[in-house]
Amino acid sequence: MKKRKLPIGGVQTFSTLRNEYDVYIDKTKQVYEMAWRYRAVFLARPRRFGKSLLCSTIESLFRGEKELFDGLFISTTDWEWKEYPVICLDLTGEDFANDGVSALVSLLNNQLDVACENYGITVEQSELVGSRFARVIRELFKKYGPVVVVVDEYDSPLLSTIDQPEISAGIREKLRAFFSVTKQCDRYLRFVFVTGVTKFAKISLFSGFNQPMDISMSTAYCDVCGITHDELEEYFAQEINTFAPEHGGRQAYLEKLRAFYDGYSFTNDFVSVYNTYGILNHFDSSGEFLPYWSVSGEPSFARKYLEAKNIDAIDIENAVIDVGDFGSYRDDTITLFPLLYQAGYLTLSSYNEQTGFYRLNYPNVEVRQSLAKFLANNYSEVASVVRSSTSEELVRSLLNGDMDDFFVLLKTYLSRVDYSLSSKITEYYFEFAVSNIVNMLGLKCKIEVHTSHGRMDCVIFAKNYIYVFEFKVDKPIETALRQLKEKNYAQIYNDSGKKLVEVGVVFSRETRNIIEWKTRQPRP
Description:
It is built from 21 helices and 15 strands. With 524 residues, it is α/β, with parallel strands linked by helices. The chain folds into three domains: 14-221, Rossmann fold (3-Layer(aba) Sandwich); 227-295, no CATH class; 380-524, Trna Endonuclease, Chain: A, domain 1. α5 runs parallel beside α7 and α16 (365-379) crosses α20 (427-440). It is elongated, with a radius of gyration of 26 Å.
C-alpha cells in the first residue's frame, strides 16, 4: 500500500493541509462550539501541539472558505458561512531578548500592514501600535462589518525574555496596552482567539481586555489539540496495520505507542492525548520510536527560568499544586510547576477533590527521558557517562535481574552527579538521582508511588522485571528490608505477569553514594 503524505515539518496552514495532505484530524466540532458560544477565547497548550493549525482553521472558518470544510463535522451544522475580515497576529520570530519593545512594535506593525494590504485599507505605521490596531479594526468594520482577531503565541515575547526582567516588564506594558484595544473596540469585533504556552492571560497582562473564556482546562475542549487514542486508531489505521507486525502485533504496538507518545491530560476528567508532532513523525519515519518532540528543540524559556531562579532540580519530581496555581501567579513570579506543565514536561495525573490539589507527572517515556537528559546536561556530568558503552551494561543488568552488576555500575554513575544541584541530601534526593539516571537510559522509572499501604520510594519497569526499591540514608539495611516486608508494596503488581523484586538500598550522606543493597522476593 502506498505510503500516505502526513502533515509533518511544521504544516500550520489549514488550507495547505486540506489540499495537499492525506490526513486531517477533525476538530471542527470543538471549533464550532467555541465560535458559536463565545466572543473571546483563550487556550494554553505546550509547543508543537497544533495551536497554530487551530488558529489557521479558525481563520479559514471566518473567511468563509466553506469548500475546505467539506466532509468535516462543521459542514453538517447550521454554521452561517459568512465572510469576516480577519486580523492574524503571530508573536514569534523576533529577537526580543536584544531589541525588546522596539522588536515587538516592529513585529506588530508589520503584521498590521498585512491586514491592511489584504483588505485594501490604509492606516500608517505608528510607535503607538495599540492606537494603530484600534484604527485598523475600525476601518475594517466600516468597510466589511465585524472583525475577527486571531493571536498565536501571544506570550512568546515574554517567555523569550523571562531571564531579563527589565526588558520583559517593558514588553508586558506594551502588550497590555495593545490588548486593551479589544475592550475599546468590542462593538466592532465578532470573535477573538488567543493562544499561548502559559496562562499569563489570567493576570494583569489582559487587565484591559474583555476577559476571554479560558478553555485551557475545560473538559469540553480537552482534546481540541492533540490526538486521542480513538482518533489514533480511526485516522491512522493504515500506519498501525503497517507497523504493528514489527512490534509484536497490534495490541503490543498500540501499548508501546501509548507509553511513548500518549499521556497528556489537561483537564480533571483526564482524557489523554498524544502529542501531534511526535506521533506524526513516528508514522512518517517508518515506525521508529524516537524522541521527535524532544529533539525538535527544548523550550528555551524553561532552561532560562531554571537557570535564573537557581531551582533545586529535585523539586521537579513529585509535584503537587493547587488548581489556582495554574493561572494565579503574577508576571514576575511565575512558578516552577505550572511552567513545566505548560512547557509539556509535566501533565495532570490525578486530582484530589477534597483538597483541590493536582498531582503532576511525566506524560510519557519520551518526555521522561528528555527531561532527565536536560537536567543531567545542566546539572551534572551524568549525561556524558550515560552515552558511554557502560550504559548498555546497566540496562542489561536490569533486564536480566542482576542487581549486583546494576549497583556496581550505578555507584559509578552517582559519583558523577554534581551535588551542587541540591543541598538536601535526603532519601528523596537519592530517589531523584537514581530515577534521573534510569530515565535517561530509556527505562520507565517512577518515584514516590502511592499505594493503600504507603509510599514506594522507587519502581523500575524493565521488560520482564518490576523492581520495587526502599531507600534509606545512614540506616541499617534491615530497616529497608523490614519495611518492604511489612508494607508488601509490590502486591499491586501481582497480576502484571512480571517477576517482582524488592530491593533495599542504603546511601551514605557522607560519601553521597550507595554503601549497601539487598534483595528479597515479595510474598504473593
